[in-house]
């Protein structure tokens, strides 16, 4: 599984759709999709990771090579 697919997996563990995640993070649904597909990084990406951590999702696997 690619790193980016794992972001989708983490979101799905929380039972949150892309649309819901976009509303929570106050970014577009397109941005959520692009984050999950590894196309963009930046503030939205950081918000995404912070939200996962805040909700007790262990993201350490994301950073392993």
What is the element string, with H for helices and E for strands?
A: HHHH
CATH class: Mainly Alpha
Which architecture would the CATH scheme give at its second level? Answer: Orthogonal Bundle
Spell out the CATH superfamily: lambda repressor-like DNA-binding domains
Number of domains: 1
Task: Compute the number of helices.
Answer: 4
What's the CATH topology name?
A: 434 Repressor (Amino-terminal Domain)
Unreliable runs: none
Beta strand %:
under 5%
Structural class by SSE content: mainly alpha
**3D shape:** globular
Count of β-strands: 0
Distance between the termini: 12 Å
Largest sheet: none
Radius of gyration: 11 Å
- Average predicted local confidence, pLDDT: 91
- Percent range for helical residues? 55-70%
Question: How would you describe the overall organization of this protein?
Answer:
With 65 residues, the protein is mainly α. It has a single domain (3-63), classed as Orthogonal Bundle (434 Repressor (Amino-terminal Domain)). The chain contains four helices and no strands. It has helices at 3-13, 18-25, 29-36, 43-54. α2 packs across α3 (29-36). The termini are close together. The mean pLDDT is 91.
Task: Please describe the structure with a list of short key phrases separated by commas or semicolons.
65 residues, mainly alpha, 60% helix, 0% strand, globular
SSE map:
Layout: H1 3-13, H2 18-25, H3 29-36, H4 43-54
Helix pairs in contact: 2-3
In a few lines, what is going on in this structure?
The protein has 65 residues and is mainly alpha-helical.
